[in-house]
Amino acid sequence: MGAHPSGDAEVLDGRDPPQTLGSWLTEHPACLGPKVCEAFGGRLPFLFKVLSVRTALSIQAHPNKELAAKLHAQFPQHYPDTNHKPEMAIALTPFEGLCGFRPVEEIAAFLRAVPELRVLVGEVAAEQLERSASHDPRGVSAALRVCFTCLMKSEKETFSQQLSLLVERISQQAAKGQDTSASNGDLLLRLHAQFPGDIGCFSIYFLNVVRLEPGEAMFLAANEPHAYLQGDCVECMACSDNTVRAGLTPKFIDVLTLCEMLNYTPAPSSSKIFPAVQSPLDPCVFIYDPPVPDFTLMRIEIPSSIKLYLISALDSASILLVIQGTAMGTSTAAASEMTLRRGSVIFISANESISMHLSSSEGMLLFRACCLL
């Protein structure tokens, strides 16, 4: 849902053929709002998505603007634009992902408990990381970079052999009813079943496993390693398609770029959960406002006791998605009433509001993507 050239949304206004949102905004740039129009050159600055993840999505990171421009110039077939791609995922169901590097003590514990991992990282790099954890906090990021890069650059024959040994060992332990949590056994076997022989299976020993309940979010800044493992979410990001991948994927892999660009600052998994703030103006609205200008997300929960509700005007264009409930919507900008139900997607121009007459007994859940400058 957005106006990126590789996935430009269609405006359902009865035209044949339908007009894309991007071309419609070119004709009506004022609908973006003056601040957004000026800041982003007359373009909608965000992309809005719904993801349903059953098979893990790749180990990846997104470049900052400087790196994006460089990658696009060198490899336009793999990096199709010059923009950065910070993004946020908000869980619709219990959701699981990998995000950021674990505290170094956790990684060191895996290096001791998983000999197959230690073989790939190498004894020198493993010992350097263990030393930095206890004696050299300033050297932690450098030691972590060396360890992760050694792992990701392992020869295919070597990592395939070590992964087979690890999977066999954990499978045997699990079959005997033994606890495999010290080796993160359950997750390893699940990922290996989805991507057999993939180096990305070892990333679970370096990256935090983050579990979100519905309504909880995680924000992924530039250079933050991550992967979505399972669950449904809404996702918003800057308007870009630049992704650097290194595992758990059949797509183009760029290990060298990924290892060079990553943020190697370790942090606990709890720090990766991004808080929503209840709006002081409307108790139904919860705002997720990341530290980037391109987008803000709102979760709108309307209880069943409310039958009339106003989607308030903003000085930014926005996209509204209905997750639950039904209503009739009216707006001065719309020629007729709109039926809003699960799956409805509405583009709202800047400074326009929508009046909703709710018709469902369950209340409504909506998400709204916008750009609050």
UniProtKB/TrEMBL annotation:
<dbReference type="InterPro" id="IPR046456">
    <property type="entry name" value="PMI_typeI_C"/>
</dbReference>
<dbReference type="InterPro" id="IPR046458">
    <property type="entry name" value="PMI_typeI_hel"/>
</dbReference>
<dbReference type="InterPro" id="IPR018050">
    <property type="entry name" value="Pmannose_isomerase-type1_CS"/>
</dbReference>
<feature type="domain" description="Phosphomannose isomerase type I helical insertion">
    <location>
        <begin position="120"/>
        <end position="207"/>
    </location>
</feature>
<dbReference type="InterPro" id="IPR014710">
    <property type="entry name" value="RmlC-like_jellyroll"/>
</dbReference>
<feature type="binding site">
    <location>
        <position position="87"/>
    </location>
    <ligand>
        <name>Zn(2+)</name>
    </ligand>
</feature>
<dbReference type="InterPro" id="IPR011051">
    <property type="entry name" value="RmlC_Cupin_sf"/>
</dbReference>
<dbReference type="GO" id="GO:0061611">
    <property type="term" value="P:mannose to fructose-6-phosphate catabolic process"/>
</dbReference>
<protein>
    <recommendedName>
        <fullName>Mannose-6-phosphate isomerase</fullName>
        <ecNumber>5.3.1.8</ecNumber>
    </recommendedName>
</protein>
<dbReference type="Pfam" id="PF20511">
    <property type="entry name" value="PMI_typeI_cat"/>
</dbReference>
<dbReference type="InterPro" id="IPR046457">
    <property type="entry name" value="PMI_typeI_cat"/>
</dbReference>
<dbReference type="GO" id="GO:0008270">
    <property type="term" value="F:zinc ion binding"/>
</dbReference>
<dbReference type="InterPro" id="IPR016305">
    <property type="entry name" value="Mannose-6-P_Isomerase"/>
</dbReference>
<dbReference type="Pfam" id="PF20512">
    <property type="entry name" value="PMI_typeI_hel"/>
</dbReference>
<keyword id="KW-0479">Metal-binding</keyword>
<comment type="pathway">
    <text>Nucleotide-sugar biosynthesis; GDP-alpha-D-mannose biosynthesis; alpha-D-mannose 1-phosphate from D-fructose 6-phosphate: step 1/2.</text>
</comment>
<feature type="binding site">
    <location>
        <position position="226"/>
    </location>
    <ligand>
        <name>Zn(2+)</name>
    </ligand>
</feature>
<comment type="similarity">
    <text>Belongs to the mannose-6-phosphate isomerase type 1 family.</text>
</comment>
<dbReference type="GO" id="GO:0061729">
    <property type="term" value="P:GDP-D-mannose biosynthetic process from fructose-6-phosphate"/>
</dbReference>
<keyword id="KW-0862">Zinc</keyword>
<comment type="function">
    <text>Isomerase that catalyzes the interconversion of fructose-6-P and mannose-6-P and has a critical role in the supply of D-mannose derivatives required for many eukaryotic glycosylation reactions.</text>
</comment>
<feature type="active site">
    <location>
        <position position="245"/>
    </location>
</feature>
<feature type="binding site">
    <location>
        <position position="62"/>
    </location>
    <ligand>
        <name>Zn(2+)</name>
    </ligand>
</feature>
<feature type="binding site">
    <location>
        <position position="60"/>
    </location>
    <ligand>
        <name>Zn(2+)</name>
    </ligand>
</feature>
<feature type="domain" description="Phosphomannose isomerase type I catalytic">
    <location>
        <begin position="1"/>
        <end position="104"/>
    </location>
</feature>
<keyword id="KW-0413">Isomerase</keyword>
<dbReference type="Pfam" id="PF01238">
    <property type="entry name" value="PMI_typeI_C"/>
</dbReference>
<dbReference type="InterPro" id="IPR001250">
    <property type="entry name" value="Man6P_Isoase-1"/>
</dbReference>
<dbReference type="GO" id="GO:0004476">
    <property type="term" value="F:mannose-6-phosphate isomerase activity"/>
</dbReference>
<feature type="domain" description="Phosphomannose isomerase type I C-terminal">
    <location>
        <begin position="287"/>
        <end position="327"/>
    </location>
</feature>
<dbReference type="GO" id="GO:0005829">
    <property type="term" value="C:cytosol"/>
</dbReference>
